[in-house]
Design goal:
GO terms for molecular function: metal ion binding; procollagen-proline 4-dioxygenase activity. By secondary structure, the chain is low in regular secondary structure. 0% of the residues lie in helices and 0% in strands. The chain has no helix or strand.
């Protein structure tokens, strides 16, 4: 899959299924920035408390 960037848009995907197992379809990468800037943000959503 590829996503064409549009200013102001975002991409959201889940890296695990509801069973807590990693989803191999979520493996991803990014392309080299040839001009301008690339911004990235991560939001972790957990099923259980980590403390």
């Amino acid at each position: 899959m590829s996503v064409k960037p549009i200013k102001g848009d975002a991409v959201l995907f889940w890296s695990m299924g509801l069973d807590g197992q990693s989803d191999p379809n979520s493996i991803h990468g990014g392309c080299e920035v040839l001009s301008g800037e690339k911004w990235s943000a991560t939001k972790w959503m957990r099923q259980k408390p980590t403390f």
